[in-house]
């Protein structure tokens, strides 16, 4: 079984990212906004983004957290075309 790109991160980095409120993650990682919106999740418009974590969002919206993290890591690794 192939490991996700997030598996290469130090466990502390992953747990720190998962502990951040969504509003903080969305501001620091714009690619996460589009990744979630593609799944019908609009955290930027939600008042709970001040307190909710990515793990909580995944649970609430029935999204596999490991798949979400893997796709996020893959997209952040892609070269930007800005």
Task: Describe this protein's structure.
- There is one protein chain.
- With 82 residues, this protein is mostly helical.
- The protein is built from five helices and no strands.
- The protein has helices at residues 11-19, 22-28, 30-37, 54-60, 65-77.
- It is globular and about 30 Å long.
- The termini are far apart.
- The mean pLDDT is 82.
Q: What is the arithmetic mean of pLDDT?
A: 82
Structural class: mainly alpha
β-sheet strand percentage: under 5%
End-to-end separation: 34 Å
Q: Topology as H/E string?
A: HHHHH
Tally of DSSP helical segments = 5
Major β-sheet, in short? none
Spatial shape = globular
Number of strands: 0
Radius of gyration: 12 Å
Low-confidence parts: none
Helix content: 40-55%
């Amino acid at each position: 079984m192939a490991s996700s790109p997030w598996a290469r991160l130090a466990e502390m980095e992953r747990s720190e990212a998962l502990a951040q409120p969504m509003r903080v993650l969305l501001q620091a990682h714009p690619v996460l906004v589009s990744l979630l919106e593609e799944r019908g999740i609009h955290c930027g418009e939600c008042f709970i983004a001040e307190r909710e974590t990515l793990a909580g969002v995944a649970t609430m919206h029935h999204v596999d957290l490991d798949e979400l993290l893997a796709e996020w890591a893959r997209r952040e690794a892609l070269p930007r075309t800005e």
